[in-house]
Amino acid sequence: MDTATPDGSQSANKQAGSRHYTALTCGLVIAAVLAPLFGTAFPRRSPVAFALTLILLVLLLVTVVKRARHWLRSGDRGGRRGYVLAAVTAVGGVASFLMVSLMADDAGIAGSALPRVLNGIPFAIDFAYLAASTAAIGVVLAAVGLIVVLARRRVRAGLQDVGRSAASAVQAVAGKPERDRGLVPVTRVSDGFWRRLMSPSTWVVFALSVLIAVPAFRILAADPAGELGLIGFLFIFPGVPVTAWAALQTTWRPDERAGYMLATLLRGVLVPAVTVPPLTIVHVILTRIPVLHDRVLAHQRPDAYLRHYWFSGESGAINVIDGSLAETIFMSLLGGFAFSLIAALVISVFVVWPVNAVRNPTALFRDAMLSDDPAVAATNIVAVRALSGVMMLAFVVPTLMVLSDSDEPLWWVGAALIPVLVWLVYLVWKRQRVDHVRRAKYGMAAAVPNPADPPPDH
Question: Which pTM value belongs to this model?
Fold first, then answer.
């Protein structure tokens, strides 16, 4: 007997349509970014690659416009996935434009195509190049428009919740949460390994990291002095943005078994294991593409010790000038893993724990191995928030004192924070009421028992 309801069928159709749109959009973005590279397979100044890119960008533009019309007519707010896909489309449009510009520059038509067309003496490739560039700009504008549509819908729908959210935040800061929610896991054991490890948006960030690798390489190639700083390191050490996003998501995406902190650290270890090797392969391929390799060589400084800050063996970075494949692989893997782990650890200490200590402190009782007895919840909330300060200062104090000299203000700031750190440690010890069973299970009995703490058999 068929028990399906019309509402259930509509919901299933809506979800299927959303999945199809997601797959189509991501596929077109990836194809539009990579299509200009096919120009290396055709004779010089062949319009084929630009024409193919134009077709893909037009299809992507049509897809975005149709989705915007659908959201405008249906009143659907689109959800978080809508924002992510719009952002992916915008970044893809920019990346495609940069790739088209890179290949046009290699063909020697970047600055001369438009004047030739205006003077009536164009090459066949000029029309394809200009049309593809225009289409890429159109995709970016359409994606930004889609974000505006989504924001307009969500802002209007969310205005009525502002007062209630503000009141809840004030109550949370005062130590009186609106309701005692405890740990509400978003991922569960039944979800499987991949779902618990990386959310759909984390996979999107991973895909974006691959897509922007080529334009990022091109930009860094023209920066032999290393002036781009953080932007360059995010490219040189792959996996960091993906791992950072996966760790950050634990703030609102705890796991049923791992909770908050352990889930953050596990994702900080496992996400790089999944994402860094493929991104390393991308780096190896990029360093062997003649157009990009020649661009690095054209901008190097032959008379300087560091011929190129990002791509010279002397700096320990990705070595394309000397052509060492082993060093390229080693530095990408080592740097990607190391800095990804550091990013996850910093986010867990400075974001995940503090935010939840204020917003929903009872959810951290299990992570801190504190008793969940309602009778001691108030004192454990104080302990959880004090522990947040302990963890942050445990990083801040030595960092300030190690990275500065004793005659510098930052060193004295670090020294002044030591008494605060000691007081917070005492506050945690004094106010915490531990879960003796859980601590005994992991062999973590307190070295200095608190007399006010209930005995293990309580």
Answer: 0.66
